[in-house]
Amino acid sequence: MSTDTLDNPKINLLGLDLKALTQTMVDLGEKPFRAQQILKWIHFHSSDDFNEMTNLSKDLRHKLIEKCEIKAPTVLSEHLAKDGTRKWLFTVQGGSAVETVYIPEPERATLCISSQVGCALNCSFCHTAQQGFQRNLTSAEVIGQLWYVVKTLKKEGVFKAIDRPVTNVVMMGMGEPLLNFDNVVMAINLMLDDLAYGLSKRRVTLSTSGVVPGIDNLAKVTDIALAVSLHAPNDTLRTELVPINKKYPIQVLLEACKRYLKDDKRRRITMEYVMLKGINDKPEHAYELIRVLKDVPSKVNLIPFNPFFGTKYERSDEKTINHFQDILMEAGLVTMKRKTRGDDIDAACGQLAGKVQDRTQRSLKFKQSIELNSKTENIQQM
Ligand code: SAH
After folding, report:
1. Residue 30 known to be catalytic
2. Closest Cα partner for 148 from 35, 4, 8, 14?
3. What number of helices (H) and strands (E) belong to the chain?
4. What is the pLDDT along the chain (382 residues), one digit of tens a residue?
5. Closest to 293 measured CA to CA, from 273, 279, 320, 275
6. Which ligand 1 atom minimizes the distance to the CA of 306?
7. How far is it, in rounded angstroms, from Cα 140 to Cα 73?
8. CA 315–ligand 1 middle distance (angstroms)
9. Which residue in 172, 152, 182, 187 sits closest to 14, CA to CA?
10. How many Å lie between the centroid of ligand 1 and the Cα of residue 310?
């Protein structure tokens, strides 16, 4: 359940999918079909005001006002890049920040959302990893990112060229979505529900560092698009870059990928491959990758590394990336290069939230030092 904390007994309806909301209505002594009406108000009409829900009786509206709430994370700051990419920093319960990035293109508009505050997986090239793991986002905080952005863009009316403000969602923000399984699945259910956002399964992508049991569990509940952070063609290198590889090595991971596709010839797994200069970007890595992926229906997404302060890695040169791509393409592997977007607002992978956190930690340290000083003063006065 997505009730926020014990000192706030109101039920937050924002994070409940149809099944959970139906149960909540039954628990409140209401007819189950009320859930469909309320779900549509919240997500399709972007409402957070029970008074607007005019197809509900006055009595029910009063009951909902008394016992429930519709509460998204609050916006800490918003950033607009020259290329139109937008980034929001949301504060979530506990004072931390997570980020959401909106990437408009002529034919589609993609929202990249976060699933956890920080991350436990410690990938060596990822800035979020340096923040450590703080906690899972609630389902309201996960879907709340989409809810807020859709509401905002509808108000601004900026999406006229395409039929809806957000056409694609990728879970590629902060955190490992498969380690926050229940809340992420609840949010996915809402993304796909026609009463809510009505996105098609191939337009919702979950990216995982390779949590194999999570992939199998996901296959039991949905068949949305799956992206896997492969990043290396052999176990020695992959364990260095993505340490969870020690637990679930490449062959085990790729078997799970095949199981996920369930022999559906139309589906493919996206293999993400960050291009790190001199580390994993040599032609021999490309040839090894071709061998490794030969019987896994996949496409490769080459991601130019986004550097951050203190990292030992560098981005591969354009020429190296192109050559790597050519080798894969010649072998018949569909290979895309990810465009870097929003560079001027640090729209990549944990960077901005990282800065806020650094500042928060600094101010916390400052506060602690003041407290310590005043304590010492008190002690000295005694
Ligand atoms: N935990 C999920 C989602 C993470 S972010 C996962 O690991 O897939 C989405 C993608 O960005 C992942 O492929 C991740 O490895 C990659 N990434 C992380 N830091 C990066 C950086 N500094 N530059 C480029 N890609 C990065």
Report:
1. no
2. 14
3. 12, 14
4. 444 445 658 999 999 999 999 999 999 999 999 999 999 999 999 999 999 999 999 999 999 999 999 999 999 999 999 888 999 999 987 778 899 999 998 889 999 999 999 999 999 999 988 889 999 999 999 999 999 999 999 999 876 667 789 999 999 999 999 999 999 999 999 999 999 999 999 999 999 999 999 999 999 999 999 999 999 999 999 999 999 999 999 999 999 999 999 989 899 999 999 999 999 999 999 999 999 999 999 999 999 999 998 999 999 999 999 999 999 999 999 999 988 777 777 776 555 555 555 544 444 443 333 333 332 233 233 2
5. 273
6. 23
7. 8
8. 14
9. 187
10. 17
d(CA 100, CA 91): 11
11-69 and 74-367 agree in CATH topology: no
Architecture of domain 11-69: Orthogonal Bundle (1.10)
Give residue for tokens 């050559």.
Answer: 323
Structure token digits, residue 224: 């949305």
Phi, then psi, of 332 in degrees rounded to 5:
90, 10
CATH number for the segment(s) 74-367: 3.20.20.70
Domain positions in the chain are 11-69, 74-367
Q: Is the distance from CB of 242 to CB of 229 less than 8 angstroms?
A: yes
Identified catalytic residue from 30, 99, 141, 176: 99
Say how far apart CA 382 and CA 334 lie, in whole Å: 74
Closest protein CA for atom 4 of ligand 1: 172
pTM for this prediction: 0.90
* Phi (first) and psi of residue 260, to 5 degrees: -60, -35
In the annotation, is 123 catalytic?
A: no
C-alpha 207 to ligand 1 mean position (Å): 8
Residues whose beta carbon lies within 6 Å of some atom of ligand 1: 123, 125-127, 172, 176, 207-209, 229, 272, 274, 303, 305-306, 348-349
